[in-house]
Amino acid sequence: METHNEFNVESLPQKKWWDQRYVCEMNGFWTLPEFVPYTVRVLNEFKPLPSDVILASFPKTGTTWLKSLLPSIIWRSSKESSSLVNHHPHDLVRYLEFPGSPPWLSSSSPNGELISSSSSSGGNHHHDEEITDPTRRRIFATHLPYQHLENKLDANKPCRVVYITRNPKDTLVSMWHFVNKTKGPEEHDWQLEDAQNTFCSGIFPFGPYYDHVMGFKKASLEKPHNIFFITYEELMTDPIVHVKRLAEFLGCPFADDQEESVLEVEKIVKSCSFESMTSQEVNKSEDFTSWTPVAYNAFFRKGGIGDHKNYLDANTIKRIDALTREKFHAAGFMYGI
């Protein structure tokens, strides 16, 4: 593959997905043109460390929630509470493939300060060593599919990946709201019917959704020690249980003392809850993140389950459920209906 400086976006197949917005096809998946050179750079240059944690997800499936939970779990011995109070989750955990300087050259510490790549890789530690200081563990996010990252994640000593997915109908509705909330003044509303059609066809940013989910689902079954797969609904239904599971997977389990452990987990769950996060001034702000002109407050809407019932008609639900049976159920993943 060409380097990021040489790659010609115009050489990729393009299709319109909304208004005057186009997506480009890269090896079976669609992405926004502005992300292409950064994606190529990730695939060419990013070298994950064994101590790295990567949060992978399809857009609007619970990414912001996990961006608050993962630092709180991993960096809990530091100042995770003040980090969440003073820093938006998307600034604490940056995307690998989004515009801007590559986050693996600098990453956030628990107190929101930037640490250099040499510090975040443990100073004099070799790349094949685990980092025991949790404040030096790097946490990144990505919407790239497993099919793109497979070579990166299949190293001899791979990093840990946490993948979250969400009911396809809720994912669609959440994305539809998000686009209309963040569109420019000159852009037309994204009609729900058009959103449904692009979602089902797969011509959707980082889509097709079903291929994206199944790539990580299958990989998690093959490599459960390296890939943690969870659904938004599981996490919403019993966050205490799954935060404990996440901590164990990440190699930073809670204390053996039952009472102390419960209190610590409850504290993290509460501080990362939708109610708590939306009460923080930084998350109410109309300021922009450093990597995209989207207001901080645009990343929070309802945070619930089943909201699609308020927007999708019976025929649309039937259509998406049929696709879910074909793509998920037929492959043995009984989810999404």
What structural class do you assign from the helix and strand content? alpha/beta
Q: Would you identify the regions where 5 or more consecutive residues have pLDDT less than 50?
A: 1-5, 108-131
* Share of residues in strands: 5-15%
For the record, what CATH class applies?
Alpha Beta
Strand order of the largest sheet: 7-4-8-9
Going by CATH, the homologous superfamily would be: P-loop containing nucleotide triphosphate hydrolases
Which outline best applies? globular
Calculate the terminal CA-CA distance, rounded to whole Å: 39 Å
Number of helices: 15
N-to-C series of helices and strands: EEEHEHHHEEHEHEHHHEHHHHHH
Count of domain modules:
1
Biggest sheet, in brief?
A: 4 strands, parallel
Overall helicity: 40-55%
CATH architecture: 3-Layer(aba) Sandwich
CATH fold label: Rossmann fold
Number of strands: 9
Q: Over the alpha carbons, how many angstroms does the gyration radius reach?
A: 19 Å
The averaged pLDDT comes out at: 82
